[in-house]
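HUMAN: Can I see a protein plus its fold?

ASSISTANT:
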Amino acid sequence: MEKFTNFLTEFRTRSRHHSKLTNFIVPELIKFENSNILEFGVSEKCMSTELFLNYCEIKKCKLFSVDNVDYSKKFSSDKWKFIKSRDDDFKNISSQIPKKIDLILLDTIHEAEHVKKIFYYYYDFLKKNCCFFIDDISWLPYLKNSDKNRFYAEINNYETFIKLLEIYNNNQTNFNIEFTFEGTGICKIKKLNDNKLNDPKKIKSRNFSIKNLVRKVIR
């Protein structure tokens, strides 16, 4: 593991995104050996792919990477299988990955309904007590006058965050959920059992109730 530790020391300093992956994913990643990792989204920078492959080479894991752009030439490793595909081409991808996965990372289309669709389908592949990570759940860096200042990303990341809370709202006995807002944020969902997931459930807040309005007036 010394080789991987040395790699991490340099990797985490490259950017906020590298640091986020190191701080939030690696504590779960290092629990595995001879395991299967599935990631959706490679991109030109290949940040998570590089991280996973460095670990796979040491711990004899297998990485399956899915992207609709052909990044198959980025790495050469017998621990890596690149699948050129949309993440929602379920039949194609299911035929090329193991039936049980130890870690999943979703980093493709950051729209709430798309995230929900991908999460619900591949959650069944995830082993019990293993984690499903969903990248880009923070809208704060994209607010007006913030450093990224992008309307589309602000709205989609916020809606994704709310959708994940709604999913958890009706699945609190099925998985645990955590968030970090480092960089553009990431969500960690830890599977507690092999139950089928329930549909999302809207969160009914009492923020605008008469009782709360009275509370604000008299406090």
About this structure: The mean pLDDT is 96. The helical segments are 2-11, 16-24, 26-29, 47-59, 90-94, 112-122, 151-169, 210-218. The chain has eight helices and seven strands. The two ends are 56 Å apart (CA to CA).
